[in-house]
Amino acid sequence: MTDLLQIGGITERMRERLSAAFDIHQLDDFNADSITHIVTNGHDGVPHDLMTSLSNLKMISVYGVGYDAVDASAAAKRGIVVTHTPDVLNKEVATTAVLLLLSCYRELVRDDNYVRSGRWEVEGNAPLTRSADNQKIGILGLGRIGQAIVDKLEPWAPEISYHTRNQKDVPYRYFDNLVEMAEHVDVLICITPGGPSTNRLVNAEVLRALGAGGTLINVSRGSVVDETALINALQNGELGWAGLDVFEDEPRVPKALREMSNVVLLPHAGSATIETRAAMGDLTVDNLLQHLKDGSVITAVPECRDL
Ligand code: NDP
């Protein structure tokens, strides 16, 4: 049997399918020379030193589409193929972005608490909320998931804008400057990959441009937003609301954010439904099994497509 190193959690279904073809090893029980395959996830990735120490490593299968925690360029140079799970989670993550947007505008958390706490009975109707209809939406990162977010929001939103490095062939307004887009829109939705090229792209200047009436939604990576600048902007009224699924130092979330009433927080649950995690798990395992069978894979990351 082939030796597979498991980093992070996998589902029972993944374990069952993998056990038929691999000897699954945990981080506290493996022989570096015999590991040829790794299954990991977008959060844990593969630590640099570990990858270096595995001289016979051939393949890394990431249970997730974001692979910024794996050095895919270094892997490609060594002929190690990295795979991920694109597309099967697009609609789910898009739903999460919409959920956060609606929760910010319609104060879902505040009003749920208003009913539960008995305040409705005592104080009468809750204060009014803001309408989520007819807001100008700006998407930072119009890739697979960004497009799925637009598909869900288009019937509600009169104007969609986007910022990416390369202009796309789409009927939405393109901004080559993120600050200018933030000035123009009511809602900024972040859905780029993580990693150095997007690190703290959403900084104090972008947040100020989004403004006191603006809402930031982040379903990308915590690293894309300068979290300290975000807290300052929310605290001093420079930014109105934030809906956040991802954070700089997960699962630790700054106390300041946890105490604010103008934020909605999720525990990195963008793709976390039973159905979508099953589809992601299947693709993660299919990539490993196919590689074992004939050396090919289904969904290599761009850096490894020519291997
Ligand atoms: P894609 O590769 O399809 O799209 C990425 C988009 O980001 C592209 O439009 C790209 O355009 C743009 N982009 C990349 N770098 C930059 C940059 N420096 N500045 C501006 N735009 C940039 O990825 P997906 O849509 O499949 O996934 C996006 C990310 O979503 C994942 O990498 C992951 O980090 C995150 N994610 C989060 C989840 C969650 O649970 N919250 C779940 C799943 C994914 P261009 O290259 O032209 O700049």
From TrEMBL:
Residues 99-270 form the D-isomer specific 2-hydroxyacid dehydrogenase NAD-binding domain. PROSITE patterns: D_2_HYDROXYACID_DH_1. Keywords: NAD, Oxidoreductase. Gene3D superfamilies: NAD(P)-binding Rossmann-like Domain. InterPro entries: D-isomer_2-hydroxyacid_DH (IPR050223), D-isomer_2_OHA_DH_cat_dom (IPR006139), D-isomer_DH_CS1 (IPR029752), D-isomer_DH_NAD-bd (IPR006140), NAD(P)-bd_dom_sf (IPR036291). Residues 35-301 form the D-isomer specific 2-hydroxyacid dehydrogenase catalytic domain. It comes from the Bacteria. Belongs to the D-isomer specific 2-hydroxyacid dehydrogenase family. This is 2-hydroxyacid dehydrogenase. It comes from Ruegeria atlantica.
